[in-house]
Design a protein that fits this description.
- Helix content is 27%, strand content 24%.
- The protein contains two helices and three strands.
């Protein structure tokens, strides 16, 4: 949970939100990474319904490479599912 929060925090810092976002839509991405946190692949799993928002999140994920590593190496996951909403609760 802490590991996921670190990753979301780093990516969130790189998101440049497009103007005129309606509501708080959720986009889900699958991310494939190396053990060092370098991103190999980012794939949109579920669109937010706003193509420019989806693209902005994808750019932010790629810009966040290498991703933070977990404090416990046993928690490392090669494949991550990341959910993002532009306005976090």
């Amino acid at each position: 949970q802490d590991y996921a929060a670190k990753i979301r925090g780093k990516v969130r810092g790189n998101i440049v939100l497009p103007p005129n976002i309606q509501g708080n839509p959720e986009a889900i991405f699958d991310v494939n990474q190396l053990p060092g946190g370098e991103i190999l692949e980012v794939r949109l799993r579920k669109s937010s319904g706003n193509a420019s928002l989806d693209a902005a999140i994808e750019r932010a994920i790629n810009k966040s490479s290498p991703l933070p590593k977990p404090d416990d190496p046993g928690l490392f996951q090669r494949n991550l599912r990341l959910k993002f909403r532009p306005f976090e609760e």
